[in-house]
Specification:
Strand content of chain A: under 5%
Number of strands of chain B: 12
CATH architecture of chain A: Orthogonal Bundle
Protein name (chain C): ABC transporter permease subunit
Shape of chain B: globular
Largest sheet of chain A: none
CATH topology of chain A: MetI-like fold
Organism (chain C): Devosia ginsengisoli
Chains: A mainly alpha (about 240), B alpha/beta (about 270), C mainly alpha (about 270), D alpha/beta (about 230)
Oligomer: heteropentamer
Structural class of chain B: alpha/beta
Bound molecules: adenosine-5'-triphosphate, magnesium ion
Radius of gyration of chain B: 18 Å
CATH superfamily of chain A: MetI-like
Strand order of the largest sheet of chain B: 8-9-10-3-11-12
Strand content of chain B: 15-25%
Order of helices and strands of chain B: HEEEHEEEEHEHHHEHEHEEHH
Helix content of chain B: 40-55%
Keywords (chain C): Membrane, Transmembrane, Transmembrane helix, Transport
Distance between the termini of chain B: 30 Å
InterPro entries (chain C): ABC_transp_permease_HisMQ, MetI-like, MetI-like_sf
Helix content of chain A: over 70%
Number of helices of chain B: 10
Largest interface: A-C, 44 and 44 residues
Largest sheet of chain B: 6 strands, mixed
Subcellular location (chain C): Cell membrane
Number of domains of chain A: 1
Chain lengths: ~240, ~270, ~270, ~230, ~270
């Protein structure tokens, strides 16, 4: 039992890396996703095609491959671009390129969620906004966005949890710098030492589970607040539909 | 009706809404086939006609929720600028249309209140955001409007917590609060149960008696007769008959209108 | 020009590349076998979740929520190891004598005789089973929901005509369930396809491992063509491969949906 | 004839690599086959990631590791080694030609290593405080980053780096002092496989004595050896 | 009605369905409060009553789609075995209930044809799967039944491709094809438009005239009068009045039944 607690504590610093990867990619991915979703819904055929293609490519291929491909791609530009600019250490650092790839990936998944929600925004409410003389940006800010985010929130919560899970493969694809090791690498290294799969992997799993639950709790609070205008706010359920 | 106001309105005869030769098609379906009419200050105009005759489309052309393929719309003497032709016709001046829209108070058949805002916030939204008026003043006026339509106590409730009739009255308050030159109603009671309908019709009646300029699409002939200064009967995208309620309902000339009125009374 | 073509042709068909192409079979096998297992586990999980007996229902619920609460990679690494150790533990309890255990100097297994060799075929099967278990948890949810979407009246009619519980389940409930489950199962299938990219983590020389080896820079003529870092080109091929496969799968599922939905589809769509 | 499964990494030329036909090749493959011939065994080669090469030996998925693995005290805690078939050899720093790297006073540099190697442990311990140690899954991946300028230097086995420097035609060069770590390269076996270890040791002794090992070293590592000639 | 058959049926008076003192509650709501009646061979019994009076529940207790809290049901003299008490009461013998159910042809208000099977397959399903009869024989009989209800040409269509009236006739064919001792109908026309209703009622009338034993819940008093041998009026879970159509509709005693019949005729 004591061994278990020691082990749990041992993983403490490692979980910080997983949380960092998720936390660094979620906000930018969110903003990017809004533009992608609007792009996909845009009447402009070029914009729509591009957004559609992007979303399809990143949802249709494995994140693992995306990591490998984008790292070696970035590496191949090192001599010509990053190095002269003095950005080499930064651009190719796992703590940068990791969140970058995760951002590109989650933006595609999130955009699909937002696109679905965008199409579900009640047309009448938007029409009312138009009829009262709101400009396009006012319509978006005051009517479309509040509806969209409410509709998308449950699915988005799942996406955030699964993005967090996706951080588990970052260091399988990228080099490890010094002692910067996440849950998976820590578990794997411990396992390679004493061959005790049950202990090390279970503890890593516990950490993932615990953080997932915290995310659900926090996002659930937000959801309840978002849905305060509904007579009986539906609860948030752990029911992922589209994942990586 | 307030006698002084009514007299003034009729004396002036200034056309607040003037529509000339509107045409509109959806794909191959020609819905409006050249419609012209004007509504003067303080006048209440009812549009009647069978389903699919183009009443809603007509009304939605006034504030350009649908852009007509040809013809013009002028509000208070100012013509709405459009460019292009046919189905590609577009609004030319976004600033102008926003300004004009904020003088047209539209009330929808299905209310279309903004679900995430309270009733009070719904009413205050357009004056604050579009007309950029001061918060304190708008709030006072909004509360007055809610009192007028009789739902003051629901100011802080959300739309989902109200009955249909209450929601429609809130929607009317929302339209009133932008201080519109003209109120536009598209079958404001047809999504309501008969009992709730009564509440809303009563509020509209009060507005008519106050001398507000209003254009309303309705399927309630009784109500059209009692509230309107002028009734327009649309048939297959054209004005088939037009006149005072007495002329239209009392001394019907068109056989089609006769048929229609007959059918309506048997509903 | 033609020399160039000949050179590239022979480069792209050398033994190493041919092995790479051949390794696509592992990916395809894992996807198909894992997908089948996912449906099987999904059916079992959904049946458990629907059970009237509380402990079984609990097992079904725990299975579907715990497995989904943990990253697939983690389960992927853990399951084959855990399974191997469990089997070895079981064998050990049968064959190991105290003398043999005393003679054992390594930490695991308890005695040499209890050892179980895992080669590529075994790993491939274990990997597919892991895929099946992980995505079976998702399929459990999909199928559970689909079973509940079948209109009550359809089942009641079956009962009213004297069908037994199993006849009702197989002839009406599960037959109609597919139509409601297909969109969700299509999503699960896409997930499985994408998860096959992780096979190399289990020592299977799969398409990803070969792409890495083929693309890695080489400086020594003795080893093969000397080239710089070409990895991203090889990964681009995989990237496009996966996009193509998901695209084709989507089309295939649409076709299946149209067929399976005969008679029911209008209800689902409408 | 008994079958012995030998694991190698396949990404550490010229020790072991995958040749154009996709099969393992290199010094250790030739040597392993010679040992099996000598001892009358059948060899079966398995490629396995460096990371998990020891755990999978322990798990019994193969019997021997021949993957340029240095004999170290730490590894001896978990597995056994045969006698070395490559003598203790200095590890070296490699860098792009013309870079002003001074490994004796390395500071603020990015040092690449292959994770789980003796060089990785050495770099972490002696250079980690003042430099950035970057560990990769394979040595080839580290080379790719060095070639692309994302690393200042790599620390690896001299015998692995020498052909690279030669083949680079002056683009790469050795820098600074060599470091001695490890007790040479040997074949790893499970601790309970005393018999197999003895078989391998006997075969190696014989192959060293008849010059086969030296011949293979000379063939695969230009200018090295002879080490084991009497 | 075929006179000879009718005479025989009345002479025998063998109770094909015998129900004794049925009680059933849903949670706190007591829906059936002790109901007993029997239907003899060849008899047509109609259950009438206002909405919520327990008619459907009553009918569903006959084939144990709802298990009554107390009381017994016997089909053809064989009592259905139950065990436990109150809300925990359960079917005791699965084999028995399956056998009995395959002798009761139930026709649902919402048809409940199996959507994944063609009409012919629907009709053949129970005879093949439950009664395990030979395929050729069943097919012949199924086609005959479809001809009888007048939808032969739809044999290979799926239910979704049929109109409501056609679906209900298919459902009747399905019930007939298991050769039931009794047919049970739960408001077989109330999900249909008036025109489609007529088709279905005609088919049921033919069955009644053939002397089939039938229990039917209906809200069509005209139809109940014309088709029934006996009419039972349920009120709040109890039998309020019972008798021949002449007695029930002609010489109504209960004031509640009078009210109900009054309301029904005004619908
Ligand atoms: N956005 C649209 N796209 C295509 N057709 C439309 C559209 N809006 C209306 N129509 C068609 O135009 C015709 C007239 O519609 P409109 O809504 O103006 O009729 P209405 O007189 O208001 O009828 P109702 O009393 O049923 O509301 C109808 O046939 C309708 O189907
Ligand atoms: N499964 C159930 N669970 C709970 N209450 C039920 C259930 N089935 C029926 N009830 C209730 O039992 C009462 C009687 O229902 P029943 O369907 O037997 O009435 P009915 O006479 O058939 O009425 P209708 O003419 O509307 O079909 C109703 O109040 C109904 O709400
Ligand atoms: Mg309309
Ligand atoms: Mg009923």
């Amino acid at each position: 039992m004591e061994r278990l607690f020691q082990e749990i504590a041992l993983f403490g610093p490692a979980v910080a890396f997983n949380i960092y990867f998720a936390a660094a990619s979620i906000p930018i991915g969110f903003i990017f996703a809004v533009f992608l979703a609007l792009g996909k819904a845009s009447p402009n055929p070029l914009m729509s095609r591009l957004s559609r293609g992007y979303i399809y490519a990143f949802r249709g291929s494995p994140l693992f491959i995306q990591f490998f491909m984008l790292y070696s791609l970035a590496l191949s530009f090192n001599v010509s671009i990053w190095k002269p600019m003095g950005l080499s250490w930064f651009v190719l650092h796992p703590l940068f390129i990791g969140p970058l790839v995760l951002t590109l990936n989650t933006a595609a998944y999130t955009a699909e969620i937002f696109y679905g929600a965008l199409r579900a925004v009640p047309r009448g409410e938007v029409e009312a906004a138009r009829a009262y003389g709101m400009s396009r940006s006012q319509q978006f800010r005051r009517v479309i966005w509040p509806n969209l985010i409410r509709l998308a929130w449950p699915a988005y919560t799942n996406e955030v949890v699964f993005l967090f899970h996706a951080t588990a493969i970052v260091y399988f694809a990228l080099p490890v710098i010094g002692q910067q090791k996440d849950l998976m690498i820590t578990a794997k290294e411990l396992f390679e030492r004493d061959y005790n799969a049950f202990l090390h992997f279970s503890v890593a799993a516990l950490w993932f589970l615990a953080v997932s639950l915290v995310v659900f709790f926090l996002f659930g609070l937000v959801y309840r607040r978002l849905m305060r205008h509904m007579p009986a706010a539906p609860g948030l359920r752990f029911a992922p539909k589209w994942l990586r | 009706m307030n006698m002084a106001q009514a007299a003034a309105a009729v004396a002036e005869k200034w056309p607040v809404v003037a529509i000339r030769d509107l045409h509109k098609s959806f794909g191959k379906l020609e819905v409006l086939k050249g419609i012209s009419f004007a509504a003067s200050e303080g006048e209440v105009v009812s549009l009647i006609g069978s389903s699919g005759s183009g009443k809603s489309t007509m009304l939605r052309c006034i504030n350009m929720l649908e852009v007509p393929d040809s013809g013009s719309v002028a509000i208070d003497g100012e013509e709405i600028k459009l460019h292009g032709a046919g189905p590609h016709r577009q609004i030319a001046d976004e600033g102008q249309i926003r300004r004009i829209r904020s003088e047209l108070g539209m009330v929808f058949q299905s209310f279309n209140l903004w679900a995430h805002l309270t009733i009070l916030e719904n009413v205050m939204e357009a004056p604050l955001i579009v007309q950029k008026r001061a918060h304190g003043e708008v709030r006072e006026e909004a509360l007055a409007m809610l009192a007028k339509v009789g739902i003051s106590e629901k100011a802080d409730a959300y739309p989902a917590q109200l009955s249909g009739g209450q929601q429609q009255r809130a929607a009317i308050a929302r339209a009133l609060c932008i201080n519109p030159r003209v109120m536009l109603f598209d079958e404001p009671t047809s999504a309501l149960d008969p009992e709730l309908e009564v509440e809303v019709l009563r509020v509209i009646k009060v507005l008519a008696d106050e001398g507000r300029t209003m254009i309303l699409v309705t399927h309630d002939m009784e109500f059209a007769r009692s509230v309107s200064d002028r009734v327009i009967f649309l048939h297959q995208g054209m004005i088939e008959e037009e006149g005072t309620p007495e002329q239209v309902f009392g001394a019907t000339k068109s056989t089609r209108l006769k048929q229609f009125l007959n059918a309506a009374s048997h509903e | 020009m033609s020399e160039d073509i000949a050179f590239w042709l022979s480069y792209l068909t050398n033994g190493k590349h041919l092995t790479w192409y051949a390794s696509f079979q592992f990916t395809i096998f894992a996807a198909l076998f894992g997908g089948t297992l996912a449906v099987v586990f999904g059916l079992i999980g959904a049946t458990l979740k629907n059970s009237r007996f509380f402990p079984l229902r609990l097992i079904g619920t725990i299975y579907s929520s715990i497995v989904r609460g943990v990253p697939d990679v983690l389960f992927f690494l853990f399951f084959p190891l855990a399974f191997e150790q469990t089997v070895e533990w079981f064998i050990a309890s049968q064959v190991c004598t105290p003398e043999l255990i005393a003679a054992q100097s390594a930490a695991w297994p308890p005695c040499k005789e209890a050892n179980w060799f895992l080669g590529t075929p075994e790993y491939l099967i274990l990997a597919s089973v892991s895929l099946g278990l992980v995505y079976g948890a998702f399929a459990t949810n999909v199928i559970h929901g689909a079973l509940r979407s079948v209109p009550k009246g359809q089942l009641e009619a079956a009962r009213a005509y004297g069908m037994s519980a199993s006849q009702l389940l197989w002839r009406v409930h599960i037959r109609q369930m597919w139509v409601y489950a297909l969109p969700g199962l299509s999503n699960v299938w896409m997930l499985i396809i994408k998860a096959t990219s992780l096979l190399s983590l289990l020592q299977i020389a799969d398409i990803v491992l070969w792409a890495d080896r083929l693309g890695a820079p080489n400086f020594l003529p003795a080893v093969g063509l000397v080239h710089e870092d070409w990895r991203w080109r090889y990964y681009l091929v995989l990237f496009l491969f996966y996009i193509l496969v998901t695209l084709l799968s989507e089309k295939a599922f649409e076709a299946i949906m149209r067929r399976a939905g005969r008679g029911i589809l209008s209800e689902v769509r409408g | 004839q008994e079958t012995v499964r030998i694991a190698t990494e396949g990404a550490y030329a010229p020790w072991n690599f995958l040749d154009d036909s996709g099969a393992p090749a290199g010094f250790e493959i030739d040597l392993g086959n010679a040992i099996c011939a000598q001892a009358g065994l059948t060899c079966e080669w398995i490629t396995n990631d460096w990371d998990s090469i020891i755990p999978n030996l322990l798990a019994g998925n193969y019997d021997v590791i021949m993957a340029g693995m240095s004999i170290t005290d730490e590894r001896l805690e978990t597995i056994d080694f045969t006698q070395n078939y490559f003598p203790p050899d200095p590890s070296k720093f490699i860098a792009a030609a013309g870079s002003d790297i001074d490994p004796s006073a390395l500071e603020g540099k990015r040092v690449g290593v292959q994770g789980g190697t003796i060089q990785a442990a050495y770099a972490e311990e002696n250079l980690g405080a003042t430099n950035t140690v970057v560990s990769f899954g394979t040595a080839d991946q580290a080379m790719a980053d060095l070639a692309a300028g994302n690393l200042d230097t790599i620390l690896a086995d001299g015998a692995y780096l020498e052909p690279v420097v030669t083949a680079s035609g002056g683009a790469m060069e050795f820098v600074g002092e060599d470091v001695m770590i490890g007790d040479g390269v040997g074949a790893g076996v499970r601790k309970d496989e005393a018999e197999l270890k003895a078989t391998f040791n006997d075969a190696l002794t014989a192959l060293k004595a008849d010059g086969t090992v030296d011949k293979l070293i000379a063939q695969w590592f230009e200018g090295r050896g002879p080490y084991f000639a009497e």
